[in-house]
Amino acid sequence: MLINILSIVIGIVLVLWGADRLTDGSVAVAERLGIPQIVIGLTIVAMGTSMPEFCSSLVSALHHQPGMAVGNVVGSNIFNALLIVGAAAVVAPISILRSSVKKDIPFALVASMLLVLLCGFDGKIQRYDAAILLVFFAIFMYMTLREAKTGSAEQPSAEGQTKPMSRLMAAVWIVVGLACLIGGSTVFVNGASELASALGVDPTIIGLTIVAMGTSLPELATSVVSATKGNSGIAIGNVLGSNVFNILFILGVTGVISPLDIQGITPVDLSLLVVSMVLLWLFSYTKLRIERWEGAVLIAVFAGYMTMLIVNA
């Protein structure tokens, strides 16, 4: 069991470090190609922070652990919406853009409801289900990039603030980052699977808890650091982008490669996935702001959910 726990820790470290390096290298290449910073942030950086979930879910599916693959995404999204936003709001109340209330949060809610609907038919994410998710992801990216173009003039330029990375170093970081993501994900999933077997726990529970929280560390770090610096509004964009990406892209690509059986994912898990986004929307809609007490409510709901999972396990 000690070796399995050590494998999980090593896997998490490799995955997080690899995602960071891959993001740095990709951003450097994009900047050299003249891609606007706002587009980089909404695409490459958002995908980079969700790479741990993507690699872990993909490796889980290929290793015939579909419950862990889906549990990772469902658990990560619940973790993001309740604990990460809750913690950031407790540190500093979060101001919400009107566009987020009108478009981003509703789209994240629609993505959650779509997943529940597709899973409700036969308890599986078939290849045609995954294709539907990818179509919705393409729609979201089109809407986001179109909005970014219209608002790009308002974004501050970072030109001259940092020295551009060389082409060679950018290529090295991309290759190293991908290698660490693949290797770390394999070690991580193998350790989590073996730990589940040793404890006699359903791998889905491990996916909903240990794997989900481990792969959500980039989002947690980004949001909490932003809140401590007085930029807590970044937290909501980080969470919404990650949640949409997790459901539509990660489960879409993973489901196309290998159809997923959602064994172990209960109606309670799927219901809380939707409820967490509804709470986020309601708290944001009232005053375009998430207050400290509302953040505390989100944390309390997450704590209750984790307690229920541990007791049932």
TrEMBL record:
Spans traversing the lipid bilayer: 78-97, 104-121, 166-189, 235-258, 264-283, 295-311
Does the keyword section mention Cell wall biogenesis/degradation? no
Where is it located? Membrane
Coarse class of the primary localization is membrane
Which part of the chain is the Sodium/calcium exchanger membrane region domain? 5-144, 170-310
Q: Which Pfam families match?
A: Na_Ca_ex
Q: Which GO terms describe its biological process?
A: intracellular calcium ion homeostasis
Membrane topology (UniProt): Multi-pass membrane protein
The answer to whether keyword Transmembrane applies is yes
Question: Which InterPro entries does this entry report, sorted A to Z?
Answer: K/Na/Ca-exchanger (IPR004481), NaCa_Exmemb (IPR004837), NCX_ion-bd_dom_sf (IPR044880)
Q: Which Gene3D superfamilies match?
A: NCX, central ion-binding region
Q: Which keywords does the record carry?
A: Membrane, Transmembrane, Transmembrane helix
User: PANTHER family from the xrefs?
Assistant: INNER MEMBRANE PROTEIN YRBG (PTHR10846:SF8), SODIUM/POTASSIUM/CALCIUM EXCHANGER (PTHR10846)
The name of this protein is K+-dependent Na+/Ca+ exchanger
Organism of this sequence: Prevotella lacticifex
